[in-house]
């Protein structure tokens, strides 16, 4: 099973990463490995753009009918069969498929997980044995690497984690902070400007509290993880998130992050 997963996902991603690296290295682009991670991440995001767009729109449609669903659940809380029937009527009336966001997510997960696994190994590649393992899965001889790539990116070792560099580079703390900030902005954008809820219902009280807490907890968790993971993975994650912010903005606008964008815009105009 693991071998099939590698053949379908991990090996093609490894070939793409090495291909971008070889191209940049041949063109004498500085920090070729770091930029190859960025190019690979952008390429994957573009490849997944239609699927992620479908997922974003599906989530938005579900948010729009959330008040109606809450009313149905409250009205028919003692009749589950009638509740399900009324909910299906709502879905049909508003042309919403509650399962529409699941398929794109299921397809995305193995690709994203493979990308993560490939980069985990690539950023700490520092032995000829590791180099040999990568060369074994490359499709073409011209892609094969004859020496370990340089993992320094603008002075930062992509294979090291920020926590191990705190003593030498105090400003390295900006890496996990920025990672958390970017994730917060994206999470904020995914929420509607006005969160629909029916006052007085336990379910909606719980959903409102959970949504508010997760808005802050998830970015903090991501920032904490990036503190102890290789910087190269933060480079991938931040590129992935920034692209996600752009995609979310183009599809649905800033959402509840509108005040953040307004402040940025005003700051830019003042300059």
Characteristics of this structure?
271 residues; mainly alpha; 72% helix
Q: How would you explain this protein's 3D organization?
A:
By secondary structure, this protein is an all-alpha fold. It has one domain (2-270). Helix content is 72%, strand content 1%. The chain is built from 11 helices and 2 strands. It has helices at 2-26, 32-64, 66-75, 80-93, 102-122, 128-136, 162-165, 174-189, 202-228, 231-252, 258-270, and strands spanning 152-153, 156-157. It has a two-stranded antiparallel ribbon with strand order 1-2. α1 (2-26) crosses α2 (32-64), α2 packs antiparallel against α5 and α8 (174-189) runs parallel beside α10 (231-252). The radius of gyration is 22 Å and the shape is globular. 24% of the residues are buried. The model has no long low-confidence stretch (mean pLDDT 84).
The overall strand count is 2
Low-pLDDT residue spans: none
- Biggest β-sheet: strands ordered side by side in the sheet: 1-2
Oligomeric state of the chains present here? single chain
Please indicate the count of domains. 1
What is the N-to-C order of secondary-structure elements (H for helix, E for strand)?
HHHHHHEEHHHHH
CA radius of gyration is: 22 Å
Strand content: under 5%
Q: Count the DSSP helices.
A: 11
Class of secondary structure makeup: mainly alpha
Mean pLDDT: 84
Q: For the report, how would you describe the main beta sheet?
A: 2 strands, antiparallel
Given the C-alpha coordinates, what overall shape results?
globular
Helical content, roughly? over 70%
First-last Cα distance: 56 Å
């Amino acid at each position: 099973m693991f071998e099939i997963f590698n053949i379908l996902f991990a090996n093609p991603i490894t070939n793409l990463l090495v291909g971008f690296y070889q191209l940049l290295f041949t063109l004498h682009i500085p920090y070729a490995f770091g930029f190859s991670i960025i190019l690979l991440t952008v390429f994957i995001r573009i490849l997944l753009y239609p699927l992620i767009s479908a997922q974003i729109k599906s989530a938005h449609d579900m948010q729009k009918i959330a008040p109606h669903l809450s009313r149905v659940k409250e009205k028919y809380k003692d009749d589950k069969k009638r509740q399900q029937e009324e909910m299906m009527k709502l879905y049909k009336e508003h042309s919403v498929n509650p399962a529409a966001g699941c398929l794109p997510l299921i397809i995305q997960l193995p690709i994203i997980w493979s990308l993560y696994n490939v980069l985990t190994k690539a950023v700490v590649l520092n032995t000829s044995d590791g180099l040999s393992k990568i060369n074994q899965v490359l499709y073409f001889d011209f892609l094969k690497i004859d020496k370990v790539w340089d993992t320094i990116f603008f002075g930062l070792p992509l294979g090291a984690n920020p926590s191990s560099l705190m003593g030498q580079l105090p400003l390295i703390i900006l890496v996990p902070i920025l990672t958390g900030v970017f994730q917060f902005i994206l999470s904020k954008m995914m929420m509607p400007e006005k969160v629909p809820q029916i006052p007085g219902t336990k379910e909606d009280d719980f959903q409102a509290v959970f949504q508010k807490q997760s808005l802050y907890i998830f970015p903090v968790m991501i920032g904490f993880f990036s503190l102890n993971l290789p910087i190269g993975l933060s480079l991938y994650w931040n590129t992935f998130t920034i692209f996600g912010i752009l995609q979310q903005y183009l599809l649905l606008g800033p959402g509840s992050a509108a005040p953040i964008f307004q402040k940025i815009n005003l700051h830019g105009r003042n300059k």
